[in-house]
């Protein structure tokens, strides 16, 4: 199985109610990692892209809390594009996968659940450096 095949949409629990729906995420139960950090992207200008990096160890769950956007994943061998537009779907992204986010709708909010605290040394910010690391592990 290639690295990118481990990245998948996770259907999160939904409690539907006429007063408004509720979705929740429990660490280690709905996501395959212990939650250490949460951050979110918002007010992304039209045509802007986010991401453009990979992580050595970090695992993530990316959720479109509001609106929609695309996530393009690349493991150095294959790429996949996911369109996120439901707050009860999360995209699991495993380590050693390059990610880019684009096609943000107006008013969209992207929430990311992360397995480790922020650590700049965990990032690959240069695509060629990322590819070299992938090849060295093959």
UniProtKB/TrEMBL annotation:
This is Sugar 3,4-ketoisomerase QdtA cupin domain-containing protein. Residues 6-134 form the Sugar 3,4-ketoisomerase QdtA cupin domain. It holds the Pfam family FdtA. It comes from Chamaesiphon polymorphus CCALA 037. InterPro entries: QdtA_cupin_dom (IPR008894), RmlC-like_jellyroll (IPR014710), RmlC_Cupin_sf (IPR011051).
